[in-house]
Amino acid sequence: MKKQKKTRRQRLEKELDDLAAELVKIRDKYTCQKCGKYVTGRNCHASHVIPKTRHALRWNLINLKVLCLHDHRDWWHKNPLEAQQWFKEKFPERYKFLMEHKEDSGKFTIEELEELKLKLQQQLKQLN
Asked: How far apart are CA 55 and CA 102, in angstroms?
C-alpha cells in the first residue's frame, strides 16, 4: 500500500513540534526537570503538560518541559496526579497560566501556523 502524502497542515504541525522541542531543550539546558540528569538524543523528551491534542497550548513553551525517557514514560504518564502536583510546586506561575488557558480554542489557520513557525524560528536563531 502506498504511503499517503502529508497535507500542508500536517507538515507545518510537525515542523512546529520539532521547533518547540528544540527550543525547550535549549531552555532547559538538556536537563531532565524531574531527576536533574543531563540528557541527549532519544533520552531527551520534550514533554507536554497539557496534552498536545489541545492545540491552543501545543507549541507554547510554557506547556513543555524536558524529561528523560524514564521519567517521561515511567513517571509522568503513569502517575498523572503526582506529576501534576510536582509541576504545580516546581513551576507555579506556569501551572497557573496553563490552568487558565487549558480550555482555549486551538483552531489555527494555515497562515497562523506559518506565523507561529516564523516566530519559533526567530527565537531559535536568537539562541544560536
From this structure: 10
Residue with cell 497535507: 7
Contact 49, 73 (CB under 8 A): no
Structural contact between residues 68 and 47, judged by C-beta atoms closer than 8 angstroms: no
pTM greater than the 0.85 cutoff: yes
Across the range 40-53, mean pLDDT stands at 95
Q: How many CA atoms lie within 13 A of 106 on its CB side?
A: 15
Domain boundaries in the chain? 22-102
User: Three-state SS string across 68-118, please?
Assistant: EHHHHHHHHCCCHHHHHHHHHHHCHHHHHHHHHHCCCCCCCCHHHHHHHHH
Q: pLDDT tier at 55 (50, 70, 90 boundaries)?
A: confident
Question: Which is nearest to 23 in space by CA: 76, 54, 64, 57?
Answer: 64
pLDDT, residue 90, reads: 98
Any idea what DSSP says for residue 76?
Answer: I
Give residue 1's pLDDT.
62
- Round to whole Å and give the CA distance between 124 and 128: 6
